[in-house]
Amino acid sequence: MMYPAIEPYAHGRLDAGHGHQVYWELCGNPAGRPVVFLHGGPGAGCSPAHRRLFDPERYKILLFDQRGCGRSTPSACIDHNTTWDLVADIERLRSEVLGAEQMVVFGGSWGSTLALAYAEAHPDRVRALIVRGIFLLRRAELLWFYQEGASWLFPDLWEKYQAPIPEAERGDMMAAYRLRLTGEDPQTQLEAAHAWTQWESNTITLLPDPAHQQAHTEDAAALAFARIENHYFVHAGFMDEGQLLRDAHRLADIPGVIVQGRYDVCTPARSAWALHKAWPRADFHLVPDAGHAFDEPGILARLLAATDHYARD
Ligand code: STX
Question: What's the whole-model pTM score?
C-alpha cells in the first residue's frame, strides 16, 4: 500500500537557462531525510502517485518535471535538453531547493538511467540509490522495444505503432518517428506522438490495465513524451555505448536496491541483471509476476520496503 495522498508544502521553478523553467515541489517533512524522485520517459513528468512512495513523516521529498515535460516549460522542447543538462539540474535542485549535502536518489525506468548517470557523476552526493525497471539505454535495448523484439510479443499493438510510418521507412522506426515528431505539420506531429505513446503505455503492465492505457492520452502530454523520448533515443542518450555499466565501479560504495519485473517488456531484465553484477553492493529483487509499471503489486511492495529502509538506515 502506498502512503496517503499528499500536497506539496512548497513549489517553484528553477531557471535552467536557454528558456527552460523546471517545475519542482517539496512534500513531506521539511526536517526529514532528503530524497529526490526521478520520473520516467524521458518526457513523462511526475504524477501525484509518485509522492506516495515515501513516508511523509520521515522524508523531505523533492519531485520535479524534467526539462520540457509535465509542468516545466516550454513544453515538449528538445533544445538544450540532454542527459547532462538534467544531471546539472539535479545538482542545482539538491543544493538550491533541498539544501542537502547528500540525498537518497530514486528512479524507475528512464528514471533509473538518469539516477545512474547522476550517481556515477556525483557519487559523494548519493546517500542511497533505489532503482526500478532498469534501463541502460544501450542500442540493443532501444532496438528491442522500438524496432524488433517486443514486436514478437505484441504483434497486435505493434501494428498500431507501425501505422503512421510508410512501409519503405520501417527499417529505422526511431528515425522515421523523429521526422514526423519534429516536422512542420502539427497534425502529423500529434498523430505520431499518440501512436508512439500508446505503444509504450499499452505494453508496460504484465496484464492489460485500462488505467495505464489511458495515461498520456492528452495531446500536450503525448507530444512532450514522444518528442523528448525520441530525441534522447536517436541521440543514444548522449552517452557512449555501454557507458553506465562501464562506469558502474563508481557506485561501489553506494548502498541501494534494484527492483525488476521478470516480464518487463519495455526494459527487459537482462539490463537489471547486468547492473546487479556490476554493482554487487545493491540488493537485487527480480519480481516473478510483474512487468514494467511501478505500481504493479510485487514491484510496489519492494519499492516501499526500500524507501522505508533508507528512511532509517
Ligand atoms: N521508456 C522507459 C520509461 O521510462 C523507454 C517509461 N516507460 N513507460 C513510462 O516510462 C511511463 C509509465 C511513464 C509511460
Answer: 0.97
For 242-266, the pLDDT digits (tens) are 999 999 999 999 999 999 999 999 9
Per-residue pLDDT tens digits for 120-169: 999 999 999 999 999 999 999 999 999 999 999 999 999 999 999 999 99
Q: For residues 257 and 313, is the Cβ–Cβ distance under 8 A?
A: no
Q: Distance of CA 70 to CAs 51, 59, 74, 145, 171, Å?
A: 15, 23, 10, 24, 32
Atom index in ligand 1 nearest the CA of residue 108 equals 4
Q: Which atom of ligand 1 is nearest to the CA of 110?
A: 4
Ligand 1 pocket: which residues have CB below 6 Å? 40-41, 44, 109-110, 135, 200-201, 204, 216, 266
- Please determine, for residue 48, whether its predicted confidence score (pLDDT) is greater than 70: yes
- What DSSP element (H or E) covers 62? strand 59-64
For 49-79, what is each residue's pLDDT tens digit?
A: 999 999 999 999 999 999 999 999 999 999 9
Residue 292: active-site member: yes
- The answer to whether residue 264 is catalytic is yes
Contact 59, 35 (CB under 8 A): yes
Q: Pick the catalytic residue from 55, 89, 247, 264.
A: 264
Contact 246, 275 (CB under 8 A): no
CATH number of 10-139+238-312: 3.40.50.1820
The three grid cell numbers given for residue 32, joined into one nine-digit string: 526529514
Q: Which atom of ligand 1 is nearest to the CA of 204?
A: 8
Domain ranges of the chain: 10-139+238-312, 140-235
For ligand 1, the distance from its centroid to the CA atom of residue 146, given in whole angstroms, is 13
d(CA 98, CA 310): 17
CA of 67 to the centre of ligand 1 (A): 16
